[in-house]
Design brief:
alpha+beta; five-stranded mixed beta barrel; two-stranded antiparallel sheet; 9 strands
Length: 176
């Protein structure tokens, strides 16, 4: 246990201080579970906690930000107004669903083997107040893609099952 803590500290110091963190941040993130309130959903797979930390959800990846609306101009430089589409893009629906599911809720964060992803973002499994895994709920609705990366495999089968359900039911981005 002591050896793994020392290794974790050694591997995390650079990333922690690059994020403006302190030694207490390292010890807090070493804990396997922690509760916090979600104050904002940035994308369908990334949240902001009350202490300002950004957390990426393990095992899922958003399909990207909503598409930008490009303005068109006529030969005189005036904006050509396009008719407004009555449908909401799936990217927006994914963020709205994630916000409704997570914002202003006290969630439990559970870390796996790697607390940081390949881009040095903190990552965790997010459990809702009712005990459901938010990562799997987003997959189940088809709003994110499955992205399981070893060694974080603790809930891999739950995530695969949720993805298969969305695929079978053709929900979200998995619809025709």
């Amino acid at each position: 246990m002591i050896l793994s803590l020392i290794f974790y500290i050694f591997m995390s110091v650079g990333t922690c201080f690059a994020d403006g963190g302190t030694f207490s941040d390292i010890f807090q993130s070493y804990q396997q579970t922690k509760e916090s309130i979600v104050v904002k959903v940035i994308s369908a797979d990334t949240i902001v906690l009350e202490d300002g930390r950004h957390i990426k959800m393990i095992g899922i990846e958003s399909f990207g930000p909503p598409p930008r609306i490009l303005l068109k101009y006529d030969k005189n430089g005036k904006i050509i107004e396009e008719p407004i589409e009555p449908t909401i893009p799936l990217e927006d629906q994914a963020v709205y669903f994630a916000a409704d599911l997570l914002e202003n809720k006290k969630v439990k964060l559970e870390y796996d083997v790697d607390a940081l992803d390949e881009h040095h973002q903190r990552q965790a499994y997010i459990f809702l107040p009712n005990g459901k895994l938010a990562n799997a709920e987003l997959l189940r609705e088809g709003f994110v893609r499955l992205k399981i990366r070893p060694p974080n495999l603790k809930y891999a089968q739950d995530l695969r099952n949720a993805y298969q359900e969305a695929r079978t039911q053709q929900r979200g981005f998995l619809s025709n």
